[in-house]
Amino acid sequence: MLNKQSIIKIRKIxxxxxxxxxxxxxxxxxxxxxxxxxxxLFLKKFDxxxxxxxxxxxxxxxxxxxxxxxxLTYKKKKKQCKALLAEAKTIFLLDFNDPERIGDxxxxxxxxxxxxxxxxxxxxxxxxxxxxxxxDWRGSVGEMIHLLIKDVAGxxxxxxxxxxxxxxxxxxxxxxxxxxSSYPEIFNIVGELVGTGIDKDQIYTNIYDSYSENRMKMxxxxxSEKLVVxxxxxxxxxxxxxxxxxxxxxxxxxxxxxVNIPFSIKGIKVSALFIEKKKHVKxxxxxxxxxxxxxxxxxxxxxxxxxxxxxxxMPLSLEETIIKFESVLAAYKDELR
Length: 337
Ligand code: 5GP
Ligand code: MN
What we know:
It contains 13 helices and twelve strands. The chain has helices at residues 4-16, 30-44, 78-87, 105-111, 141-153, 160-173, 185-195, 200-208, 213-226, 242-247, 293-300, 318-330, 333-336, and strands at 20-24, 50-54, 71-73, 90-94, 115-120, 131-134, 227-230, 235-240, 270-276, 281-287, 304-305, 309-314. Strand 8 (235-240), helix 10 (242-247) and strand 9 form a beta-alpha-beta unit. The radius of gyration is 20 Å and the shape is globular. The two termini are 39 Å apart. The structure holds guanosine-5'-monophosphate and manganese (II) ion. Residues 31, 95, 121, 140-141, 173 line the site of manganese (II) ion (MN). Residues 98, 101, 122, 284, 303-306, 309-313 line the site of guanosine-5'-monophosphate.
């Protein structure tokens, strides 16, 4: 996958033995954390000082991942993270392509004179790093890290712990090998990971069968009370106010996957999830087929992402955001028919 020069550069970084920091995006998901930990575990094999920094908390359902003890949260340990960023000789940025996606940490990144490498699979990367490896057809960054490790050090370097992290990255970002995984090579990658002896059924259980009773009840509440179907746009959405989240003792990561629920309804092409935050509304957007939610998110909701999975934020009330959403959809009426 990597061109020869990128491989040479990454090998040189390893030979230099300077401190490395691996960073991923705010509200880290399975790909952000899985690919970050896999890369960190790989670099550790060369006795490099490696730290993994996430802008904010990692959801509980990912905390069992091998190497999790390496993770520092910038929001909680600012001083320590700032020092690590200042000392770093190399910084890897994974699973995002715009400095805005790491919040306040972007200032520390700008100030650093480390060699910065971005490895990502989102569309339209912002060019601000020393090396950019961007492949927007990939289902996950996990796939790219697998290929990177093999290119740099050979397939034997992908041990069971690394393979577990990469499997989680790919499984979660492709919604269990459904989305963005229609290119055959992904199954070769997954096959090689399974071949290392990982326990894929246990991994599935750890990720998908480990939520709280409250989360299940909130999901049921969303389906029965909060689902809105806009038939004329073949669109459905769910919105949650802070008081509703509180009622179900919402924990970080609990609404993960809710945005996909409406696709079980025949004919739905676009689905949205609106979550009320203190000062803004977080929006998750998904589509099936030709309609681009990346375009929708970047043009109207201060965000971006992929063709079929994107997100954004609006500094409006929940009601205002939903009104805007419905009015924006009207412009796509023909496309969504
Ligand atoms: P999710 O809906 O799971 O939060 O995010 C889906 C996709 O959209 C992810 O690939 C994520 O990187 C992207 N995304 C989510 N929120 C934002 C945002 O606020 N800004 C941008 N640029 N991308 C986002
Ligand atoms: Mn990803």
